[in-house]
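Re: beginner question about structure tokens

> Can someone show what the tokenized structure looks like for a real chain? I only ever see the sequence side.

Sure, here's an example I had lying around. Input first:
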Amino acid sequence: MSLGQGFFWIDAAIDRRTATDRLSEENTRTMTQIEKARQGIVTPEMEYVAGRENLEPELVRSEVARGRMVIPANIVHLKQGLQPMGIGIKAKCKINANIGNSAVTSDIDNELAKLKMAVDLGADTVMDLSTGGNINAIRDAIVAASPVPIGTVPIYQAIQQVKHVEDLTEQDLLDVVEHQAKHGVDYMTLHAGIRREYIALTANRVTGIVSRGGSLMAQWMMAHKKENPLFTRFDDLCDIMRQYDVTWSLGDSLRPGSIADASDAAQFAELKTLGELTRRAWARGCQVMVEGPGHIPMDQIAMNMEKQAIECSEAPFYVLGPLVTDIAPGYDHITSAIGAALAGWHGASMLCYVTPKEHLGLPEVEDVRQGVIAYKIAAHAADLARHRPGARDRDDALSRARYSFDWEQQFALSLDPETARRMHDETLPQDAFKTAAFCSMCGPKFCSMRITEDLRKHALEAASLVQLGEPEAAGARN
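And the corresponding structure tokens:
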């Protein structure tokens, strides 16, 4: 039994219209952000993004019009309280947090706790990557509760409803995309760029095809001896996405899953196809961002960012990491944040976080915290390196608070105030130490900032005496 034969999650009144039928309704449907931008219209969503980014609304419109910025904002989610945000090189570098259940663990309450943690700490988007049971209820709860855009990988839900991946039909895949679009998903990762001919290019890889969605599509193609249906039905998928203004997140099925496989023929063959699909989606009125590699050594990151910009006509680049070494399971939020900062510096528009549990297990709430904080640091470092106006304001404010021993202000300006306060209070918990001119690292005698302040006061006093012509000051110079 296929997805198209009445599975529980398919709406009873699911729309089976053809692409031609949908196109005939063009005059009655809501235009997408990119279509309005091309007509010179500054939408309320563009105005909102401009305010958040401290940019001129016209700049936001022009960036959306040319496809260099996306505003993932499903018309359904907008009605539920979505706060629009922009992803693009002219905006702040964004981060995404992945949550979702598996066949082994997790439930709605746990996923909502992860969502709250991620949003509270500053995640700009969240992806629900649920692969276990109750996918509909979990996704709907996440969309309803989230003020930030929500992304999914539709094939994860599709595959749960069949016994074998080869049982999926082309219509099944379109149906699940339309189902999720109708339920408010703002952007979707669809692995349309992996072609049948590219599979052979992975034969000598150390880690093969590490993308879950990519490997499933490769398995389907091998079983049916046919081309990727997400590629052959791409125009039909565009029509569904456009109807709800769902942003494409073109999945990198052949991203390298190890340093050994970085920047190989398979990766770049798919990237070229993703560029072609980007332009096709733009032509059909869809917003697009392109996903990027997962494991890349530091010396290849700039080249990868530049190559994507060329191949994909500067569509926003959304990268996983990249991880710059493979030797640190349990610490991959660190190995990947190093690569993420470099990727953001060289042009990535959004960074997909990696948690300490990467490669080891499903992340829990604390893993989400660690991943988000690591990536907020990476994204902010990228904004500093790109000299984005205003990016340094918070750094300077915190530095001034640090120098003046304003501990409460230091905590408030921290990315994670709770952790900053806890670490300070582990050794000096009393309220009196919140105004102390030292911390437990140096103590009162060895604090360089206190010593520096004493030296400044002494220098100012000496300068004042010189200006007054005091003999003691004059004698001090001799």
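Each token stands for a local structural state, so reading them left to right follows the chain. The first strand starts at residue 69 and ends at 70.
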